[in-house]
Amino acid sequence: MVLGGPGAGKSTFLKRIGLEALKGKNGGFNHSCIPVLIELRGFNNREIDIEKAIAEEFRVCGFPNHAEQTEKLLKAGKLLVLLDGR
User: Fold this and answer.
1) What residue spans define the domains of the chain?
2) At what angle do helices 66-76 and 50-60 cross, to 10 degrees?
3) Is 84 exposed, middle or buried (0-12, 13-18, 19+ CB in 10 A)?
4) Average pLDDT for residues 62-78, to the nearest whole number?
5) DSSP three-state, residue 15
6) Quick check: 74 and 38 in contact, CB under 8 A?
7) What is the top-level taxon of the source organism (predicted)?
8) Smaller CB count within 10 Å for the chain: N or C?
9) Long-range own/partner contacts, residues 13-22 (CB < 8 A, 24 or more apart)
């Protein structure tokens, strides 16, 4: 959990965590864990379907079979889900 006042850089920090998760030891990219940033401000009800939100992010990025891939990656523990509570 990252806490701080408005403008303190919480969202920027979460994005940085996501980018760092992709880096390999020598600065190259390592995709053993796929970071997914979900902005919670986009949800206007109390029930949030995180799996559906992740699948939508994958769809936007052009993942083939985004819903099936989301379920598979979640079950395999291959996602780093970053929730931005703005």
Assistant:
1) 10-84
2) 120
3) middle
4) 93
5) helix
6) no
7) Bacteria
8) N
9) 14/82, 14/84, 17/80, 17/82, 18/80, 18/82, 21/80
Which position has the token pair 């990656």?
73
Residue 64 structure tokens: 């083939």
* Phi, psi of 31, rounded to the nearest 5 degrees: -100, 35
Full DSSP string of 26-85: TSSB--SSEEEEEEGGG--SS---HHHHHHHHHHHTT-TTHHHHHHHHHHHT-EEEEEE-
Residue 60: both structure tokens together: 């936007």
pLDDT (0 to 100) of residue 36: 92
pLDDT tens digits for range 9-63:
899 999 998 888 887 677 666 677 889 998 887 777 777 888 999 999 999 999 9
Are the C-beta atoms of 18 and 37 separated by less than 8 Å? yes
Q: Higher confidence at residue 16 or residue 86?
A: 16
